[in-house]
Amino acid sequence: MAPAPRGGRRTGGRRDAAGGGEAVRKGPWTAEEDEVLRQHVRTHGPRDWSSIRSKGLLPRIGKSCRLRWVNKLRPDLKTGCKFSAEEERVVIELQAQFGNKWARIAAYLPGRTDNDVKNFWSTRQKRLARLLRAPLPARSNQHRSSKAKAPPSSVESQAPPFHQGPCLDQASFEVDNSLGGQCCEVAPLMEYQNVALDPYDQTGCGLLGFEGALPLHVFPPADGEASSSSAARLAPALPLDQHQYPLLDFPGLPKRCVDVFSGFVDAGAMDGLAFQELLPVVQPAPMMMPFFCMERAHNDDAIKAEPRDAADDFFDELPPDLFNDALDQLPLPPSPSRGDESLTCRSVCSLDEVPRPAAFD
DNA sequence: AAAGTACTCAACCGCTCTGAA
DNA sequence: CTTCAGAGCGGTTGAGTACTT
Description:
single chain, 4-stranded antiparallel β-sheet, two-stranded antiparallel ribbon, 33% helix, elongated, DNA-binding, repeat, DNA binding, SANT/Myb, Plant_Male-Germline_Reg_TFs
C-alpha cells in the first residue's frame, strides 16, 4: 500500500513574477497532476517541461515537472524498497570514485535516482557521524567547490586524489602528529570502508584480514586472471615491515565475528553496513587504522561452496568492465621520493612498485 | 501512552551547463 | 561573441513516520 502523501514544505502557491503573474503551485503533487504529467510525457517524451506550464496544463514550473517525473513517475523506478547491500556497496564504491556525483552514480543503479542516492548517502553520513559521536565536520572547501568551475578536461578524467576520501570529509581522523607531523594526509575512511565491504570479493566469503596500519592499494588483476572485478586486490601500500602493528581492540564486534588469533573478521557474521560503520568507531587512533588485506579465497573450497546470494547475482548483471573501468581510473599517487614513503599516507609508490603480499601469489 | 529522537524522502533552491538565436 | 532559456545537478530543508525511552 502506498504511503500517504508526505506533506511537502512550502506548500501553497505563490506568485511567480517571472511567470507572468500566474500562480505557481508548489508542494506535494496530486494524483491528478501526476496524470497530467504522465500524459505529457506520453505525448512529447520527457522534455519540454516548461511547455507544461506555458500551455496551461499544470501550474507548475518546468523544473518541478521534470523533477517529479525523474524522481517519482518514471516507470522504471524502484519505489518503496530500501537500498540493498549490493546497492550500498556500489554507491560506496562509486562515491569513492566519483565523489558526490549522484546522477552519475545513479546511472549505475537501475531504478535509482540521483535523489535516492543522495538521500541514502546523507542518511548514512549522519548515521556514521552519530556512531562516531562527533559532529559532521564543517563543509570542506573541497566539497563546497563542487560547484566551482573546474577545468572540464580534468574533472572527468581525474578521479579524486587517493587521499581525498570523500566519506565523512575525513572528519573523524585527526592528523597523527606522532609521526613527526609529517603525515598530514589523513587516511580516508573510504579506503577502509571499501575494504571492509570487500567490493571486489565475489566469493561471498566475507573474510577480511587486518594486518597493519597502512593505507591500501588496489592491485590490478594479475596475469592470467580473469579481467573481472573479482580479480582486483587490495594490498598494503607500504612494506609491512616499515610499520608498527597496533593491537586492535574491537569492543563493538560480536565475539563470533572475530578470530583473535588469526586476526580475521568474519564480516559475513554481520551485515556489511554494520561492520562498515563499526570500523571507524573501533579504531584506537587515527593513523593506527588497520588496513584490511583482501583474502581472496580462491583455494578455499568450503568458501566456494557457500551459496551465492542475490547480491552476487546483482554484480554479475553489471557490465563486466564496470569496476575495471573504475580501477583503471584510480589515480596513481605520485611516486615517492626516496626515504619519505613512510611519512605520508599518500606517499606511496605506483602500483607496479607496490610489493604484492605473498598471500596473493 | 507520551515524548523524544532518528530516519526517510519529497521537493525546493541556487547554480552550472548547453545549445539555439 | 553574447545572450537567454531550458535542462540538469548537487545541496538543503522540513514534514511525516518509525523507533526508542
